Amino acid sequence: MAPRLKLFLPLVLFVVLAAFLFRGLSLDPTALPSALIDRPLPDFQLTELADDRPLTRADVIGEAALFNVWATWCISCRVEHPYLQQLADRGVPIYGINYKDEDAAARRWLRDLGNPYRANIVDREGTLGVDLGVYGAPETYLVDAAGVIRYRHVGVIDERVWRDTLEPLWREILALENSP
Amino acid sequence: MNRLLTATLAFWMLLLALPVAAVIETYEFSEPELEQRYRELSQELRCPKCQNQNIADSNAPISQDLRRLLHQQLEAGASDQEILAFMVARYGEFVRYRPAFNAATAVLWLAPVLLLLAGGMGLLLLLRGRKQSPSSLDSDEQARLTALLQSAEKDA
Amino acid sequence: MIPEFGHFALILALCLSVLLCTVPLWGAWRGNATAMALAPNLAIGILVFSAISFACLTWAFMQDDFSVEVVANNSNSLLPWYYKFSAVWGNHEGSLLLWILVLALWTCAVAIFSPQLPLLMLSRVLAVMGFVGVGFMAFSLFTSNPFARLLPGTPLDGQDLNPLLQDFGLIIHPPLLYMGYVGFSVAFAFAIAALLGGRLDAAWARWSRPWTNVAWAFLTLGIMLGSWWAYYELGWGGWWFWDPVENASFMPWLAGTALVHSLAATEKRGLFKSWTVLLAIFAFSLSLLGTFLVRSGVLTSVHAFATDPARGLFILVFLGIVVGGSLILYALRAPAVSSRVGFAWLSRESLLLVNNVVFLVATLTVLFGTLFPLLMDALGQGKYSVGPPYFNAVFVPLMALLMPFMGIGPLSRWKQDSASRWRAELLLPAIATAVCALTLPLLHDGDYNLWVALAILLAGWVVFGMLRDLANRVRNASSLAAGLRRLAPSYWGMFVAHVGFAVTVIGVVVTSQFNIEHDLKMTPGTSDTLAGYEFRFLDVRGVRGPNYVADEARFIVYRDGREVVRLAPQKRRYLASGDVMTEAAIDDGLFRDLFIAMGEPVGSDGAWAIRLHYKPFVRWMWAGSVLMALGAFVTVADKRYRRQRSAARDALRQGGVSGAQA
What we know:
Shape of chain B: elongated
Shape of chain A: elongated
Oligomer: heterotrimer
Number of strands of chain A: 7
Strand content of chain B: under 5%
Distance between the termini of chain A: 61 Å
Helix content of chain B: 55-70%
Helix content of chain A: 40-55%
Radius of gyration of chain A: 21 Å
Largest sheet of chain A: 7 strands, mixed
Radius of gyration of chain B: 28 Å
Largest sheet of chain B: none
Order of helices and strands of chain A: HHEEHEHEHEHEEH
Strand order of the largest sheet of chain A: 2-1-5-4-3-6-7
Structural class of chain B: mainly alpha
Order of helices and strands of chain B: HHHHHH
Distance between the termini of chain B: 38 Å
């Protein structure tokens, strides 16, 4: 290598680094994709919020649905609640996972704010939450008819999130299921 | 840098909305060896919710849960590998502060060794080059060296 | 009105900086001495206006002017005055203004204390620093204006300073750290000026060396204070977390350490010129990169400032111009052929090269580890974390590799040395070291700890090697005192800094190995014993501070039945923000710290979760760092820098002008 060319090496390395840093500006380091994408919804043996009947994985799969992790102590959950109601009214099946909450408070919440959920899985100890890799509320999982997790959204669901990310995936899953 | 800890608003909201447990917890262990492993593992696991903290130092609810799980699993006799596999299966590679050695992270773990080897090689080459006095070059090389030196001086 | 005045002063400082980075350069190019001579005056002007601007922001904090946004967000009327003062730099905008002020200080210092410099060189150095100033002032004014008002909508009171920052350590930590960070801009400016002028020689190294040492010393102190602060303020008892923000300050330090050593070879022997210039560019680039990492949000850190992609983009573009530009200049102008000065395998030059290789590898490893999550994410490979287990695993062996060479370094001769001489000189130190490593760990009751023995072996090797050299140097003097007096400050500086390094190593290893931690539930009246100390928990009572209320636990620590100390850790709740903070109580000592932190109340019988720590030798870590910094400060007093200064005063002024015409 010519001696002069060798001196360009630091510049080349810097350009590569700068390209990565530029790319990094448009990435969100806090966004954490679920480790369970394309994996089955975990098994569980829990109860239903309203009537304490036993509830297992087999009871909640069979059609594509949203699984919404919520709790009464979660401020953002209250924010997204009306929009979940709208989605439910439009016929989107939503199951609730009542995460580390008190039953009485949760029932009151549903009575006062309306109940968009097909059923509510009571996860008082957060065991299902851990198996799902939940790290806060609200989180929403998109699960297909075979019970496979297809997507996770962390944070509030609103019109924009639904339209831009969840609905396209949702339609895709429905289309695949209806096609064969 | 200025060590400004601007915890995110959401984090504080969660913190205030939940009964706040202590970072200082008082788990009882059946054996001192388990306590030692608990301490080490809780420092190697990253809190998924926080900005950048291990679960041992984090006050976030999820860290409390993971610490409790860690304690349970240690008492149930799980090995370090099993516990890490359990956490990674749920929260992804992200939770490991000590990345596993695999195809994707090989470059990370080998980087210091490779850099050191490269540095050592460079050093040896340089020292060997130094040992040769200019007179040991043949006349052709000598002429080129002189030319280079002159051009370098002109550059200067 | 005052904040607008500060804003205006900052704009003026920016205008002067634009002049500083253009007019003297033009003068240097055209050989116009008048234009060049303008540089020092401009530097003084920039300092004046930066200081006015900074004073205005400080005034806004002191006067609780909550119509200023940063004051409203980071201060409170209840805050004690000294924390109002430090709150000025407890936020992104204000800390940037501090950065600007520190840069102006360095620029002005170069202008005033460099009469020995040829005017041509001085004008170029100041112009480069002016350019850096333009970047940061524009960054402040265009993306992070500290004087932005909340009008209308001025809040009645401020949101308070983050309680973690309400601490003495945080009053002095950022200024010292910035003195170091920004100080490397001087070494950088000298390197760029030398490349521009095409004259890389021993004189250039001699000029930039004291500045580099001082900057390095400040950075050492700044990092040390950060570590000390984390230790007592975060309540975890930890002192280094390998957080991206810590790494951001540590990388320039590592590169700076390499630079300090390679400058020695360049000054004394005229060697490694291109290499030294590259290191100077590298060290300052890492300072800028650190700024980018901390303020752009590309990495998650507990310490990150509230971030904004526009700010990230601005710094990245600036980084590209400064670093890219200087590396292009380097590639085009640096001497491509190494100098003809020869040296043997066994020589001080070789040992300094080993130092450079180790520190460079350490820097690059920390850089790579810090950026690895970002790289993987950018390549779509998923999310990874690289944390303390990784950094410790790679960093500790690197330092261990360094220290055997460090023991020989001070004894070795330039140009050529011999193995037989080293053997003869180092036999005694080797024996002394081995004895220490075998016996000293036994002083600690319990098992013989191999890691501690290894640390003592390495640290002892460094210290005894230097003592041997010292003995050689004073042997021929009439008396010991006369011999010691004869030694040059630069020698003393090296001596103290190397001893400091050894002390730090001992502190780090011993405290990591022998640290005892108890987390337990304690009821008032009970006690717990660790490492022979009995911690008796008396009671908990409510106390009130200026802007917080706290539960304060009272402890008495006994050893062998005798009272050692009374400690009172607190659990504070700050009134304005509602933030809860653990205030640890520490009894510090040369050989051990006792540390108590409070968790939460447990149960109903008045019990609390309590953390007790016994931390042997933890002070050594910081004491060693202070010694390192002290050593670097001492070197500046060396005669050869002073002599230059006085002799050169008038003669070289003229030389500068004639140099400019050449």
